[in-house]
């Protein structure tokens, strides 16, 4: 397995050394829309062969990874929400704390770096889409590469538009003197970039890969992201239909044990619709730094950021006898339970009393000396998420009875971890897993649209917690819901904090922007 994964990762990431121009300089005051080719290849000598086209698309995935500290999706998705606090030492990473407190200025570090990473990805995709069609190469490989580039560009724009709102739209390479570009409305970004890119990607991408290509974007990934885009646009019928098309592909299913989604033994599994790949022990570095960012300091050399809140912990259901939804302890380290290394969790490891477990590996896999070189993928789209999107869309269409089985599939898998995980036991039972505790996560039966909406929102929070989706859910669910969920963040005002500010570096260089 390690040899197989190493081949995958080298195909996807090691190109950063051999293709020097793809490692782009990211200066603090740089206009991130103005990326120039640097290094060993010029415009006239690259994009000439199939091998070079593959190198280019491989490098287009890199801004999604957590192999550097520039991708701060977790800050926007979790820390800005009610699910997590900054964590860490009080003065460490102060700009993350300012986001946590909604004291956010255009010069904020994560605001700057996330913009830069996403537009770098768009630049790479634009180059591929402009140059690869002219290469004399295998037509099937060429079509696939163009489909991958469209999927990735759509994903980068999806993140940008949901973090920053109206943004500059750039769909082709431009010279520096053409880069004074005003913002386009959010609806325009969806309808002129995200939707058409994904519709085209679906036509060109395979349903699955084998060998060293496993980990690339698939037809299922593009279809799922399109369903998510429709959901965010409140195009309920299209969202429901497109999510159903993901199921119809037939490649996806829920794993028997929820926790298997977050361990290295089950990477790229049947529930993983699209995952950002990481691998430890490589040169250049391809590991997952979140393994260190979210770990405790004690014995692990961690930074203990992204600390779950008590409100998040309290969201998990319990039976009348106190048996908790097993997803809680698969997700969170807390008092009275063991940490990922088997030792009792100490609440003093975190300022909230909790740490997230989903991105953590035991020291037997990644020792403290190389803690920041984690091996876990980041699963950006899980099949459980697709089921919940479809349930939400159907409920909004007034088809609540059709939504129930989808929601209940997710709950069934969660409670039946007691049947499939031999390490689980009900409190006080003295036995290992063999039966589902009475009253644990019963099927939802209501067909009231408002009640079912609340149930779906709840299920998304506990099923997908600490996976960097929560803030974006809160924002798309509207002002009243978001304002109530973030009521403890006294500086949050939906009308002004719905989107984060465009970075100061872009304001300084792109004079066409309006604020």
From TrEMBL:
Main location: membrane
Transmembrane spans: none
Domain of life of the native organism: Bacteria
Annotated ranges, domain RagB/SusD: 271-513
One cellular-component annotation, GO: cell outer membrane
Domain SusD-like N-terminal stretches: 106-231
Gene3D superfamilies linked: 1.25.40.390
UniProt cross-references to CDD domains, sorted A to Z: SusD
Subcellular localization: Cell outer membrane
Cross-referenced Pfam families: SusD-like_3, SusD_RagB
Annotated keywords: Cell outer membrane, Membrane, Signal
Family: Belongs to the SusD family.
Designated name of the protein: RagB/SusD family nutrient uptake outer membrane protein
């Amino acid at each position: 397995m390690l040899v197989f994964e190493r081949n995958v990762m080298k195909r996807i990431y090691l190109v950063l050394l051999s293709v020097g121009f793809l490692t782009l300089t990211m200066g603090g005051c740089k206009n991130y829309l103005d990326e120039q080719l640097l290094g060993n290849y010029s415009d006239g000598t690259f994009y000439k062969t199939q091998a070079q086209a593959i190198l280019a698309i491989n490098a287009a995935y890199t801004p999604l990874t957590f192999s550097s500290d520039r991708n701060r999706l977790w800050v926007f998705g979790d820390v800005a929400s009610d699910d997590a606090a900054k964590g860490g030492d009080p003065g460490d990473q102060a700009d993350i704390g300012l986001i946590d407190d909604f004291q956010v200025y255009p010069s904020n570090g994560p605001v700057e770096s996330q913009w830069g990473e996403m537009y770098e990805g768009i630049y790479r995709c634009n180059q591929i889409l402009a140059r690869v069609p002219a290469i004399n190469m295998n037509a099937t490989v060429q079509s696939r590469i163009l489909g991958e580039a469209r999927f990735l560009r759509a994903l980068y724009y999806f993140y940008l538009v949901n973090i920053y709102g109206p943004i500059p739209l750039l769909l082709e390479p431009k010279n520096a003197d053409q880069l004074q570009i005003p913002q386009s409305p959010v609806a325009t970004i969806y309808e002129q970039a995200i939707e058409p890119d994904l519709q085209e990607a679906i036509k060109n991408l395979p349903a699955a890969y084998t060998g060293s290509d496993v980990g690339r974007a698939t037809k299922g990934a593009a279809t799922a992201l399109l369903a998510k885009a429709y959901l965010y646009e409140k195009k309920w019928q299209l969202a429901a239909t497109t999510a159903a098309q993901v199921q119809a592909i037939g490649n996806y299913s829920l794993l028997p044990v929820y926790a298997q989604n977050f361990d290295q033994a089950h990477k790229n599994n049947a529930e993983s619709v699209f995952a950002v790949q990481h691998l430890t022990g490589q040169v250049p570095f391809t590991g997952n730094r979140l393994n260190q960012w979210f770990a405790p300091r004690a014995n692990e050399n961690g930074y203990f950021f992204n600390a779950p809140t008590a409100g998040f912990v309290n969201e998990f259901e319990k039976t009348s006898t106190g048996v908790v939804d097993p997803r809680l302890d698969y997700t969170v380290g807390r008092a009275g339970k063991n940490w990922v290394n088997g030792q009792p969790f100490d609440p003093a490891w975190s300022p909230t009393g909790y740490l997230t477990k989903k991105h953590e590996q035991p020291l037997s896999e990644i020792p403290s000396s190389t803690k920041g070189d984690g091996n876990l993928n980041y699963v950006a789209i899980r099949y459980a998420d697709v089921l919940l999107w479809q349930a939400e869309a159907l409920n909004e269409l007034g088809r609540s009875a059709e939504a129930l089985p989808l929601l209940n599939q997710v709950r069934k898998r969660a409670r039946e971890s007691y049947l499939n995980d031999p390490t689980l036991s009900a409190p006080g039972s003295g036995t290992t897993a063999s039966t589902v505790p009475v009253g644990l996560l019963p099927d939802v039966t209501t067909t009231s649209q408002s009640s079912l909406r609340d149930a779906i929102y709840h299920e998304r929070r506990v099923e997908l917690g600490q996976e960097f989706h929560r803030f974006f859910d809160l924002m798309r669910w509207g002002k009243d819901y978001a304002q109530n969920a973030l009521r403890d963040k006294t500086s949050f005002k939906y009308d002004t904090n719905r989107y984060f500010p465009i970075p100061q570096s872009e304001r300084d260089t792109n004079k066409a922007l309006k604020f």
